[in-house]
Amino acid sequence: MDLQYGLELVGTFVFAISGALAIREREHDMFGAGFTGFITAIGGGTLRDILLDSYPLVWVDDVWFLYAILVGVLAAFTFPKFLSELRRTFFLFDTLGIAFFTVLGVEKALNLGMRPEIAAIMGMFSAVMGGVIRDTLTNEIPILFRKEVYASACLAGAIVYLILNSYEVSRDINLLISIAVIIAIRMLSMKYKISLPRLD
Amino acid sequence: MDLQYGLELVGTFVFAISGALAIREREHDMFGAGFTGFITAIGGGTLRDILLDSYPLVWVDDVWFLYAILVGVLAAFTFPKFLSELRRTFFLFDTLGIAFFTVLGVEKALNLGMRPEIAAIMGMFSAVMGGVIRDTLTNEIPILFRKEVYASACLAGAIVYLILNSYEVSRDINLLISIAVIIAIRMLSMKYKISLPRLD
Amino acid sequence: MDLQYGLELVGTFVFAISGALAIREREHDMFGAGFTGFITAIGGGTLRDILLDSYPLVWVDDVWFLYAILVGVLAAFTFPKFLSELRRTFFLFDTLGIAFFTVLGVEKALNLGMRPEIAAIMGMFSAVMGGVIRDTLTNEIPILFRKEVYASACLAGAIVYLILNSYEVSRDINLLISIAVIIAIRMLSMKYKISLPRLD
């Protein structure tokens, strides 16, 4: 449990950095960048918990998430160029982050007694809706509609988790497999420029 | 009650199709179209229930709504051209859908003990906010600000329902009249290109 | 308490006017302007209360807020030119409004047992998120990302309130000082065109 909590804080920190950096090229000041980092980091989990009526919200209840965000935003302020040059590293962290948050979101919904279909949606929302809200607020086309295999990788990983869970695979193994599935789908689709077919 | 439940599922199905098709011309892949269909179908009712603190949300509690959406999205994927050519038919269905969901939203708010003013707003939100959220996410000007007599037709129908309800008109007759009012206002305003005055 | 309630209604009324006028130059009809006034007036407090799970929402529970909005929207419809020419007066009112709603939001969160960090965020959200939601719906760049010292002035005032509160300064004096801080920061930054540094 301690490891998981630590990973959640690290994931929140990474999301805050990528959120703050996402608007770096645009006409935003430091406050706007910090606000964007905050929204990116908490948006997905907050939406999930509002939909599930699960209160208090994680970051409202546990102030360490706020400090993880604050440190992430300050890092983005202090080393913007350095962090932007780490784009490839960040892609890895971001992929790890969405994979991890997807599975945690699925587990939270299951623990609240939700059906698997709902848990799959909540897992995906946890991972991607922070970025969607950020993009909507900053008038970007949301990431969901740009990077073809992004939210769908999360949804696929969520479904894998739920299938293995129904066969009573142990939690640790299930976590590893379903996180690996999300990472593999996203990496391979980036490498080979695979995208889902368009509707036409 | 069974008829009403069936109509709710059909309405959800139709909203999912129109949501998925709404972004057909744009650069979205199948996942984006499905996501948009989902948001369009559940957005209005979800916002209403969050504002009223009415949990669990309808689609979280009853998984058949998810399947109605899934079938709608798959239909949009499978027959996009055929369905798009049915534009006039869809306009009819969409008008029927917003009229029906407006009145159901009003009734739900009244059943939760809300005042009529709040019930009118909640009825209108049920019908139109799914489309507003969809348009906001996809960077369109929301339908509310484009089609002049759209949300205002719903609000008018909601008010008619509330007035008749206060005179204790029977529910079936009231439903028919207030749904007919919404349909008539929208149809006539389209036919004669009537719009509300602008502010200037 | 009566004075505070009156000020809340007046603040809501002013926010509704400025929301309705904000889209005056654009292609919106009267319904869209009214809707925008409504969202501007209730958006921030509604988001705060959803995040804090504080139900019923203020405007759902007390219908006088709806009427304050309605009167504000009707005023914007009836005297749009006159009110637009009062831009400088409105700037004063808007600044007073965000200062006042910030402090009330902080107090509400504290009364619900929240930590000061959360109360500061909730105070800022109460004041600025109505405008952010309005701008997002109407495809504008949110005010938060445009006017540099806007939300940050609110956050500064919230922090001042919390510091003085922790030293048990009496509520009336604290209200006056923290509201004055917000107004002073915003006024001075406008007058001397001060803005926060950008991230680059």
Automatic annotation (TrEMBL), chains A, B, C:
Localization, UniProt: Cell membrane
Domain of life: Bacteria
Membrane topology summary: Multi-pass membrane protein
Chief location bin: membrane
Record-annotated Glycine transporter domain positions: 7-79, 92-165
One CC-aspect GO term: plasma membrane
InterPro entries with a match to the protein in the record: Gly_transporter
Keyword Membrane belongs to the record: yes
Record keyword Transmembrane helix present: yes
Coiled coil: none
Keywords in alphabetical order: Cell membrane, Membrane, Transmembrane, Transmembrane helix
Membrane-spanning intervals of the chain: 6-23, 30-51, 63-83, 90-106, 149-167, 173-189
One protein family per Pfam: Gly_transporter
Family: Belongs to the UPF0126 family.
The protein, known as: Putative membrane protein YeiH
